[in-house]
Amino acid sequence: MSDYIRRIDKMEWMADSFELITYFITANIVIVNNVFFFRVHLFALTAEQILYIFSVIAQIVGTFIGVSIAGYALLDARNNALDDDDDGIKVLKLSLARKQFRWLIRLMIYGLVDIVLCLLSIGIYAHASWLFDIISDEALVVLGAFIFILVKFTLFLSPKAILKEGDLAKREIEDGYSEESSTVSYSDFIIKYNQLQEILYLVLEESDRAKQLAGRTASKGVHHNRVMLENALRMNGIFNNSLAKIYREIAHYRNALVHSTEGNRAINGEINQKLFKLYDLMNSLLAIIKTSKDSEYKDSKPYKDLVKFASENVLSKSEKEMIDSVIAQLESEKTIKIDSKDNEKTFYSLIQDGIIDDLLTSKQITQEQFSAISAWYSSREKA
Known about the structure:
Structural class: mainly alpha
Shape: elongated
Number of strands: 0
Oligomer: single chain
Number of domains: 3
């Protein structure tokens, strides 16, 4: 992951706190106005009751912080115990672990702040009335935020946390496509994906370079590892950037599908068509490679059909709309403005993965547009 993508992720994490920030601003406006103007007290408590309440709150918050840290350790152990040979589990584990850690950090920060405010309330109760009112009210406001964060963090304790993460990943992938569902069943999709894996491995085995590197690229480890298989196909010249992206996207969709909840197994029609078409094209290419020498297969119709399929299908519906918007901007304003951080990440990834290079090769963008996009990319890298 590049530094630029990390910066965007950090900004998105900060944006996740918008609800809490709004809550604090609103609460503080109410507190200040009440202390200096309205002076309304909802409860009449004695000194002993006040000291007891804030003492108990501090102890309970401290206890929940300790329990949450222990819970996080158990979650981490449970996630690490999942099957590491499954690429899909690895991706979901990483995503889930990142969210768990972020919410744990928030929980600890808000909890410790609340404990300090409770102790300050106890310490200054007998000396400063208006200051006590502000600090004690702030302690209760922070307690409310702490409870909210605790509930969010507790959701990760669910045994179905990975499945829910799979549902989210599946929905994020499908958001880029039309909402059309396929009539193909879940089992048929998985069977066809497994057949595609077998075909890709056979294509790799039959290529001249794969035979030369038989001890490495055509090994069993490559066969069962999607990333290694994709890299080997790239190295052999069978996959270009666009084909690698299509395969990677289908694999990610399969992984999200396998690890989603039972009620979320409907197959997206466009992704299903890509899978079946890619399988058919690779199957045709395999027959040519078996009878070809060196790279003769690249002059064959099956390979040209494969490259054409890649150039026409590499972009999802939302990615096409974004590229069309960028091209329209370059034609009218000569500048590139991306409307959201999510789209900016997607656009950046398309450039980084070489998809924009493939669009230039297939003449879907001009050299001038390519240069402008490259300049935009360079400016983000230097930022």
